[in-house]
Amino acid sequence: MTQPYVKQTIENQVAYIEFFHPAHNSLPGDILANLATTITNAGTNDAIKVVVIKSGGDRTFCAGASFKELIHINDAETGKLFFSGFANVINAMRKCPKFIIGRVQGKTVGGGVGLAAATDYCMATKFASIKLSELNIGIGPFVVGPAIERKIGLSGLSQIAIDANSFYPPEWAMQKGLFMKVLETTDALDEAVKTFAEHLCTYNPEAMKNMKTMFWKGTEHWDDLLTQRAETSGKLVLSEFTKKTLKGFK
């Protein structure tokens, strides 16, 4: 696989939404926009009862923001627009009336941790270490922070956000409530996700819709909040510190 994509397949009333990028499943603006639209459309498709979010490849779930795009941001409005891509995906997941299951097969960084946190139930493999590396490049996990804090608490968020150099093992993420299960292999993960998602399809869709509304109570202001956070990140990415750091990744 060499070309980026977002694709959806439906099997036994489960929508599998898969994204891929050859740069360790990083997330440029077009992939983020496609993801948000695909998730929103799945929420209104009567042929779908449950959604699974997954990525292509074997050992990396998501490397977070695309450094290639970050390097070329030269004004605050473009920066806000880029980070709003993450806000739009998280809000699409939040508003989707169907349960979203996360399938995390490998390491995940930055915005990828936010995606995992925005799912309603997330499973992973023993290779799925997590890291919030934003502080390393002079920004912070501002947009994805609310989703992560909602899952692992302010203490957990502050720990991994400040310790921006460290990968935290999937067992830590499970103890904190980000992952519900940690499996030995990707095959075992796929089987567990498929079995769980298809079993959910036997439940009353209206009950699941109302449960999701209950679980996300108190996040109704996130449209505005995450837009404000995107603006903050968009300004910070223009800082001399961040520009100099990003040049080192060229």
Structure description:
- The protein has helices spanning 29-44, 67-71, 76-95, 111-118, 145-162, 170-176, 186-200, 205-215, 222-236, 240-247; strands spanning 5-11, 14-20, 26-27, 50-55, 60-62, 64-65, 100-104, 107-109, 121-125, 130-131, 181-183.
- It is α/β, with parallel strands linked by helices and 250 residues long.
- It has one domain: 2-enoyl-CoA Hydratase, Chain A, domain 1 (Alpha-Beta Complex), CATH 3.90.226.10.
- The strands form 3 sheets. Strands 1-2-4-7-9-11 form a 6-stranded mixed β-sheet, sandwiched between helices.
- A hairpin with a 2-residue loop joins strand 1 and strand 2 (14-20).
- Helix 1 (29-44) runs parallel beside helix 3 and helix 3 packs parallel to helix 4 (111-118).
- The longest helix is centred in the middle third of the chain and has 20 residues, at 76-95.
